[in-house]
């Protein structure tokens, strides 16, 4: 097994579509399908179910996702640590975004920075992975969800978005125009794996309990929409902009204003360069313009 096989696996696992995964990897679909088949044969496990309704992860595939992400991130960190001096000298920036960032944001950031003469590499990583990559010097900037451990890091001002409830369009609660957290009693909660953003995970459950919703069951999924479609009577939380990209899913606002996501563009403490300042401004503007993030109104 080579690291590229894990990259191929993660692309298909994220997209759940071989064609889109191939485009993301800048390759054609037939060799991608062969590489996935090679990986399945080497592991002796079936990672994907391929059927008339599309591609889904098997239980083995779901179990492989987080170890594969950690392995790829560790490899990238080692490679970046070795190339960091040449990267800085060549006016390059390596920037990480969470998986739910829209293509419009990525295009605006990459295009805007390249017009200033910077070479840009975009990396997909969770908040927990970005904290580690920043501290190791493997990335120059990241987009992190609060709260996260601040040691050695310097965040920008915060942007915020209120969370609403997302659910399949045929869910009984979808008939309501607005929801309260106690309305979700008895519903399975679909959440991201805690390892992806431990602080945000714990904060979300604390707020749910405070307002009277104690999930009897939590189903973890790397892609929230997958969990909603395979678990009966399931709900999740997300921002409206992300939910609107998923067919068959509806979003309803929540009465509890304290259930929200906050994000910042983050660099290593002590590193202040014109290129980093300019990139931070561009990234914040792109997040506001394309993904619905708004400045923190708190004083």
UniProtKB/TrEMBL annotation:
Q: Which residues cross the membrane?
A: none
**Is-annotated flag, keyword DNA-binding?**
yes
Q: CDD domains in the record, alphabetically?
A: PBP2_LTTR_aromatics_like
**Pfam families assigned:** HTH_1 (PF00126), LysR_substrate (PF03466)
Q: Which UniProt keywords apply?
A: DNA-binding, Transcription, Transcription regulation
Which GO terms of the cellular component aspect does the record hold? protein-DNA complex
Query: Does Cell cycle appear among the keywords?
Result: no
> What name does UniProt use for this protein?
LysR family transcriptional regulator
Organism the protein comes from: Phytohabitans flavus
């Amino acid at each position: 097994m080579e690291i590229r096989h894990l990259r191929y696996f993660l692309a298909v696992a994220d997209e759940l579509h071989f064609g889109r995964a191939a485009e993301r990897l800048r390759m054609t679909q037939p060799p991608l399908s062969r590489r996935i088949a090679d990986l399945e044969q080497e592991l002796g496990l079936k990672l994907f179910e391929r059927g008339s309704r599309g591609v889904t992860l098997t239980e083995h595939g779901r179990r492989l996702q987080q170890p594969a992400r950690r392995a790829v991130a560790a490899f990238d960190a080692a490679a970046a640590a070795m190339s960091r001096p040449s990267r800085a000298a060549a006016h390059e920036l390596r920037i990480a975004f969470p998986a739910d960032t829209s293509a419009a944001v990525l295009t605006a950031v990459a295009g805007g920075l390249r017009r200033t003469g910077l070479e840009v590499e975009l990396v997909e990583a969770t908040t927990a992975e970005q904290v580690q990559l920043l501290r190791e010097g493997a990335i120059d900037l990241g987009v992190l969800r609060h709260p996260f451990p601040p040691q050695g890091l310097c965040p920008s001002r915060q942007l915020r978005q209120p969370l609403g409830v997302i659910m399949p369009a045929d869910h009984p609660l979808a008939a309501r125009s607005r929801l309260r957290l106690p309305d979700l009693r008895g519903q399975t909660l679909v959440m991201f794996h805690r390892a992806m953003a431990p602080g945000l995970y714990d904060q979300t459950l604390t707020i749910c309990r405070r307002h009277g919703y104690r999930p009897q069951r939590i189903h973890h999924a790397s892609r929230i929409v997958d969990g909603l479609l395979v678990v009966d009577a399931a709900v999740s939380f997300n921002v409206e902009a992300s939910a609107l990209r998923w067919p068959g899913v509806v979003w309803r606002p929540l009465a509890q204003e304290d259930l929200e996501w906050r994000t910042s563009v983050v660099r290593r403490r002590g590193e202040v360069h014109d290129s980093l300042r300019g990139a931070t401004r561009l990234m914040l503007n792109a997040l506001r313009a394309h993904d619905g993030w708004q400045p923190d109104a708190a004083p």
